[in-house]
Amino acid sequence: GKKLNMARKRGEPIGKPLERIRRTVSSACFGKGGKAKGREAKKQRGDQAAAAFNDDTADLGVTCTMLDHLGHPVPETTTNSEAWQTGYTLELKYTTGREEDSEVVSKKLKIETNLPGCSELALPRRIIAGQILTSPAWTLEFCSSADCKWSWFAEEEGGGWTTIGEGSPQLAIDEKFVGRRVKVRCEPACGERAGEPREAVSQAPVMNSPPLRFMRARHDAMGARPAGSSLRVMSYNILADVYSKTSYAKDVLYPDISKEHLDTDYRQQLSLFEVSGFGCDILCMQEVDSILYDKFWSPRLGSGGYEGFFSPKTSKVEGCALFWNQEKLGARCTESVHLRDLFADEGWLEKHLGAEAASTLARDQNLWGILRKISTAAQYALLEVQQGEGRRVLVANTHLYFHPGASHIRALSVAAILAHAADLLSRHGLTEEDCPVLVCGDLNSEPDTGAIELLARSSVSAEHYEWRDCSRFSWKARDEESGFEQDEDLRYALDGAAGGGSEERYPRFDLRSPFGPLASSDGLRSAFTNYVKGYIGALDYIFYPPGKMGLERLAPLPAERDLCSEDGLDSEGNVVAQGYLPSQSFPSDHVSIVADLSFLPGTAVEPPSLTWPPPGDRPVMPLPASRWNEGKAADALRRGLVVAVPTDTIYGVAASASSDEGIDRIYDAKRRPAFLPLALCIAHPSEIGRDGDASHLPPDLV
User: Fold this and answer.
1) C-alpha 662: how far from its chain's center?
2) What's the pLDDT tens digit per position in 383-436?
3) pTM score, whole prediction
4) What is the signed CA dihedral for 14, 20, 21, 22, rounded to 10 degrees?
C-alpha cells in the first residue's frame, strides 16, 4: 500500500494516534460520520485520558490495537517512543456490508520504523556527455548513498529505456547518448531492509562535452595525490549563483557567455570535475551558495571521502566552505568568525591588534563603522595528519571585501584574520612552531597591495599609500542580498569629505603579523587568477610558512590564449578573439590555485621568491583607468616606476618628473634619443620651475 508518515510527539500516549487511525478507517468505510457520527463524539471527548479512547470510539465500528512481538496488546498509555517498534503489529477490525449480512474484516499491518527512503531525486537541468560525471540531487532517509542500489538508463529511439550503468550515484554519460534523455533509479536500502524505489528523468537531452583540454592538462601536470604527509591544497572561488544571475553580471561582466553555459547546473558540474580531478587533501572554496552547499557540494564531496563545514557571510546567501580528505586528515577543531564581530569588540582589538590601532579606530568613526558592517567570514580548521607523527596544520579560508577602493579595509581584515589564528593556536596550547598556518582564499588583493604585503613581509608600514583611502572611502548604502557583489555604484563611492579633513590627516596603522613572513605558492608571479571584461588581476592565493613547509608542485595557471575558444585562435595559435571567464570550458570567473606542500625537511622543486615587493619580472595585466587605481599609480611614480595613462586618443607613458630613475625608464621604454626632451605635465604654472627650466621663455607665454 501507500507509504504514510506520521509525526507525533515522542512522549504522547499511543491512544491518540490509534484514535486518529480509527477515524481515518471509519471515514473510508462508512463516510465522515462513522457509524455514530464520529464528529460529535470527538467534540464530547476533548482531551480525555488515552485509557478511555477505546470505550469512546467503539461506535466508530473500527477497532485498532497494537500488538507486541508475542501478539499481546500494547497498553494505550504507552508512549509513542516505546510503542512504535519494528516487528510490532497494528491490528485493524471493522465490519462491511449491511447489518443482516455484515462481515468482520481483520487486517494486521507490520510496523516498520526508520525504513530507508529516498524523498527527493532530481537530475541536473543540463547533462553533459564525456568525462563530466552526472549525479542527481537526492535526499535520503535512514540510509546512505553507498547503501542504495543505483541504476542508469538512456531513452531508446523507439521508446523505452536501456540500461547504461549500475552501482554508483554518478555516471559519465557516453557521447553516443547525446540527444537522448537519461533516467536514474534509486532503490534505498540499509542492510537487508529496503525502501520504496524512486526515479528521475532528465528534463532535456544530453548535451555535447565542452573542450576540457586545459583542465585535463592541469590534472595531468599534478598527477596522483601526494603520498605520506605531503598535502595537496586547493583554493577556488566557484562564482556564486546569486551573483551570476544578476543583470550586471550578464550584461557587464560576462556578456560573451551563453545562457546555457552560465546556467548553475552546467557550471557546478564543471566545477566538480575541476575539483575532483586534482584529488586534493584540503579544499578551500569561496562564493559557495548556501543552498548549493547543502544540496550539491556537501553530499557529493562527502560521498568522495571528504568532511567539511560551511561559513556563510552575514548576508547568509553565500560563503566559504572548507573540506578535508578524511582518509588523510582529522579535524581537532573548526571555527567560523565574522570579521565585523572582531572589529566591534574593543577589548579584542586592543589585545590582538594593539592599543594604538584600537585607539586609531576609535577616533575614526567612519572607518570603524565600515569595519563593523563588512560581511566577510573567515573559517579555520585545525587538522591533524592521521599517520603523520603528530603533524598538524591550521588552515584559514576567507573571501575578503571586494570594493576596488577598499584596499585598506582588506589590509586590516588580514591583520584580524592572522590575529584570530594566533589566538586559536594559543587556546589549544600550540604555537606556529608546533603548527604551520596556511592562509587561503580570494583575497581580492593584487600582489603589490597592503594585504599581501602583511602576509608576505609580516608587516605594513604606517606610511603605506593605501591608508590615504581611509579618509576618502565611505559606506554609502548596503544591499548585499539583492545586488551583484561588484556593482559598486549601487552602494559605495569615494567621498572627499568623508574623512572630515585633508588627505594628510588620514588614520595610519603600523600592522605586524603574529607569524613570520608567509610565502605565496606562486611566488607572487601570477599574471591573473580573475579575468573578466573590465578587470584582469591576481586575487587568489595559498600562503604557507616557508620555514615549516616546502612547495613541491604548483598546478599551471592559464595564459590568455588558454581562455580562448577554438575560434579565437588562428592556424598558428595566435589570439584573434580574446576569451574571458567564465566560459564554456571554465565554470567560474576565477581559476583555482592548487599546490602540493610538504612538511620540512622536504623536497621543494622550485622555491618561490620571498622578496618584497613582488618580482619585477612578474607579468602585470593592465588596470582599469579608474579613480580606484589613482593611489597605486601615484605610489608607482614615487618609486621611480613608469605608468601608462589614457589620453584623448592613445595611451601615454609617464614617470615622475622628480625621479631620474623614472625618466631613464621612459627613454629606455620608448627607445627615445637622449637629446629629445619629454613633455612636462604640471598642476599649476607656478610649478614649472620645480622640475623644468623655463627661464628662456617669455613670462606671458608661461
Assistant:
1) 43
2) 999 886 789 999 999 999 998 889 999 999 999 999 999 999 999 999 999 999
3) 0.83
4) 110
